[in-house]
UniProtKB/TrEMBL annotation:
Nucleotide-binding in keyword set: yes
Cited Pfam families: ABC_tran, OB_MalK
Keyword terms of this UniProt record: ATP-binding, Nucleotide-binding, Transport
GO molecular function: ATP binding
Superkingdom in the source lineage: Bacteria
InterPro entries: AAA+_ATPase, ABC_transporter-like_ATP-bd, ABC_transporter-like_CS, ABC_transpr_MalK-like, ABC_transpr_MalK/UgpC-like, Mo/tungstate-bd_C_term_dom, NA-bd_OB-fold, OB_MalK-like
Domain ABC transporter, chain residue ranges per copy: 4-234
SUPFAM superfamilies named in the record: MOP-like, P-loop containing nucleoside triphosphate hydrolases
Descriptive protein name: ABC transporter ATP-binding protein
Amino acid sequence: MSTVKLKNLVKSYGDVTVVQGINLEVKAKEFVVLVGPSGCGKSTTLRMLAGLEEISGGEVSISDRVINDVAPKDRDVAMVFQNYALYPHLTVAENIAFGLRIRKVPKDEIRKIVADVAETLELTPLLERRPADLSGGQRQRVAMGRAIVRHPKVFLFDEPLSNLDAKLRTQMRAEIKQLHKRLGVTSVYVTHDQVEAMTLADRIVVMSAGKIEQVGTPMELFNSPANTFVATFIGSPPMNLIEATAEVSDAGCYALFEGQRCLLPTLSQLSDGEEIIIGIRPEYIEIEPVADATAIDVKIDLVETLGSEALLHCKFLDKPFVIKVETHGQLTHLENLNKLYFRQNAITVFDKKTTNAMIASDKK
Ligand SMILES: Nc1ncnc2c1ncn2[C@@H]1O[C@H](COP(=O)(O)OP(=O)(O)O)[C@@H](O)[C@H]1O
Ligand SMILES: [Mg+2]
């Protein structure tokens, strides 16, 4: 099984650098998702890996072999695109077989491989149809079939589900995940959708403006974001952020904001009077008193019902603040809440100047 390594990878168009020295190691069989806002350089990075874009600097290796100068067709990678890129005049079977025919695989063998893949992807009844007569989900499956038959060392996906409606996207997401479990092919998957990243990835790479912000498992990014960008990009609704001033004494570390005083994790890097940002996830806020939690005065402006859950909206320092709670079928009491409880270890403290998270020394 193959590994992928990006070393100081750079892409420039003229004097604009859009990928700014990316370092990443994808392990054998790993499913890594590159996620970030539109224009941050995800597709460019993937296309350099596939050989579809010239590399301006650095190295791309597959299984420890540098492939910068290897032609795309010799890299042994298969790419699935957002727009499927199927041949409209060919049938499903011919589309899936295309790469095999080019490589002069014997006809009988091709027929068997196509039949197997069609079975796996539930495309058997559709083999004689043309792409125009397929639904979006079926077309995407054909595109994956075409990638699978080549037995590539690495699968590359560029927003393969973005053209599908929400329900189909969820279904195809599960199919891709199962396929990866079954085939175990090292995969690099690009999306702007953090939910897709969270559900599919073994590890997520969060990018912004051509740089990597953080690499980690979905839960690492959710619970220990490296900075405020990751804190607000991963999770929905995003992590709440409040600007505050630190109060540090022998009694412990506190955050002061809007006349309130909130107990923080004990952080040796924090100094008295420092400007900080405290972050707390909507899911990690308590509405009943618990141990090690500070009571915070609040006025709820709006309750949004999602069924089993509700979002409570309020403001701190004129910035929106959201709490996610389970309703247990009861809503009436929620808009009258006047206290929230911030547990000490549910709070992340960020340096306001650098926006980087401060990590407790026992967590290092
Ligand atoms: N051929 C090109 N010439 C100039 N700039 C480009 C070209 N292709 C992409 N870019 C720029 O590179 C940046 C990254 O693009 P891209 O990798 O497609 O982003 P993403 O896939 O994350 O949305 C964008 O600012 C885009 O405008
Ligand atoms: Mg893109």
